[in-house]
From TrEMBL:
The gene is 5568632. Residues 377-499 form the Methyltransferase domain. One of its GO terms (cellular component) is cytoplasm. This is Methyltransferase domain-containing protein. PANTHER family: GLUTATHIONE S-TRANSFERASE C-TERMINAL DOMAIN-CONTAINING PROTEIN, PTHR13369. Belongs to the GSTCD family. SUPFAM superfamilies: GST C-terminal domain-like, S-adenosyl-L-methionine-dependent methyltransferases. It comes from Aedes aegypti.
Amino acid sequence: MIFLYLEYYLKRCDEGTIAVEVPIESYVVLGLSRYLRHPAIGDNLLVSFVQRKTEVEEQCDSVWLDLTGYDVSFFPADRWPKPATFCQLPSLKHNVWIVSGLCGICRHITKYHRSSAPSPKPILGFKGNTLLAPAEVSMWTKFCEVDIVECVREVLRLRNTSTVTLPEDIGKLESHLAQPLKVHNIYKLVNDMQNVKVSSSKEYELSGEAVQFDFHENHKFAEGFTKTLADVMLFICIHLINKRLPIERLQEHLPRITNWYDRVVADDECELMQVCEELILFDQALLKPMEADQLKVDVPTSFSLYKADTKKLNLLGDKVLTTNQPEVLGILEKVKRLELSVESMPNDRDENLFDWDAVPLDAKPEGGKLPTKRIDRKTHQLECLANEVIALAKPGHIIVDFCSGTGHLGILLAFLLPKCTIYLLENKEESQQLAMDRVRRLGLKNVVYFRCNLDYFKAPFDIGVSLHACGVATDIVLEKCFAHRAKFVCCPCCYGKLYEFDRIRYPRSRVFQESELLLKEYLCLAHCADQTHDLDNSRTNVEKSHQGFYCMDIIDKDRLLQAEELGYSVTHKRLKPENCTPKNRLLIGTL
């Protein structure tokens, strides 16, 4: 049974009709659910609408849906079901899973549909990989989860004027659809389409006269040649935009999106469009057609939504941050003038608080299918963090393993602390599935799985842990701990991948913020902190590595100063032995 939680603002019942005002995300999920289980949602998907606001001013980013005949439940703002409070909505609970994030929700519902429906719709793409990468690392997933939803909101807010400027992400989608087809099974596709035999060893023939395969013309749907879940989600959103804007203007300025829209409509004999039409109440003011005589939209000459998101590469302007040693030395002088005790301390724990011999295989690094050469180092890393958590934990505590991966740390803690509940939070399906397989073999009953981005997690907890959460992820973990007044045990990683966004700014502490350090100098130190290497290797630049370790300590000192400003008692130590990883700093905070 899947329990689906969607947000709503207002509900009106009039003469047997149930109308509900919802945000765009709720509309997308309900539209997909209706499409996959048309004409009824079905008994195995229980939909609950939870009210975000009791008094709502006029919404400019919502739609009214007709839910007459739908078997759904409604919960007012002061009586939410407990699972609905754990993550940002929309969310769902399915057995031991709690999933959040628009793409994650839609993938989960679609996978369940594929496994249970007699004739499932094949929309998960090649090897089921459609929208598999999380939005934090994939520009394409982020576009389908965040950007296109924001586009709809912006269009709904537009005033009815003669000239309308469309959001820039609409132009990006138009340009993306003009890119050549990219699919993993291209040779099979060519063979099936044209009844020829082309192998990967004869790649040049794909554009030759014998085959004449047009890579641009065959980019028919959002992800390639066939319709996928991405097309369904995008269509549900674009359908609202089409209702607001004159079709002749769209055809003139966005011909590829218009042609794509028509292909999606025709692909299933208008079934998806019918679902949208039946759901939406089109007499609402925000969906009244505009009388725009002219559209303005910036369509990039060549743009692919599959490229990397460069904002996460520690950029200043359009240039990748680099280090110049004389400049670094000048920045370090500024740090020295703060007169802080920056350096971390050696690990002072003399004995282990648990017996590795009593730990079963699947709770050890060996159970996580690590390469043999990494097992010893991972064992030492887990031992150091597990000891600190054991010292802090009490029966009944909830412990969150953020960025848990395949569960190395969280599963070990679940075995060692059977009276605690362990949340494994991970946004990658494959990694979480490996963790679930290990937990199942161990028979552990105190593990709950959260599949979502860090930002979406809202549940209360007592201790937050992370082992090598990459770059800014460590700071998001600490923010979560601060918000819930939870203790923390964190081993940071990838300092050079720090970047600012709406909630995370650098430096973190008032001490560093009020210093003479500029942001670019702070990020330069973070970049230097990644110049740490194995000191036992003869090719290592020892002086540069020691400087890197010192820069790690500076960044972590800033983090711990922020924790102290919020009332935490902090410890800044190193893993033991220190050569178990170059990123060997350990941040501990208690209250």
